[in-house]
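Team,

Forwarding the record for the chain on the shared tracking sheet. I've put the sequence and predicted structure together so nobody has to dig through attachments.
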Amino acid sequence: HLRVHTNERPFVCKYCQKGFKLKGNLVVHKRRHLDIKKFHCSQCDAKFVTSSNLRDHELTHTDEYPYVCPVDDCDAKFKWKRSYIDHLRAHLNERNYTCQQCEKSFVDPSVLRRHKRSVHEGVKYECRVEGCDKKLSSPSNRTRHEKDAHNYNHQ
């Protein structure tokens, strides 16, 4: 139990040298390198290394949103706990994801990834409406721009 309070990681993966505090976590991690997927979805052909990955995946086959934002006037619902926690951090303006290149911080890791691609790698998504030369930081921002600015729905 003491390793929980220290950063000691005595169990090391022989494939990638990543260290773990618990031997069981190393065993599960090694399954990823060996592509051992013991957990099978009953709805499709997907297979997973862990039962928790399978449980998360199974939610994609349902209309279930078990995580509901408790903030008044916010109707956000989430399938996955990680998304729910990131959403709550946005309400609190907790910015735990920082760009190593410019120190800008974000509440959501996916927004940090989009920032890196757009700002530091120069990846842009051009508007598909003829005559518009606007470039956007993500496919979803491009689609929103096309709909809002041009009343255009790409199929």
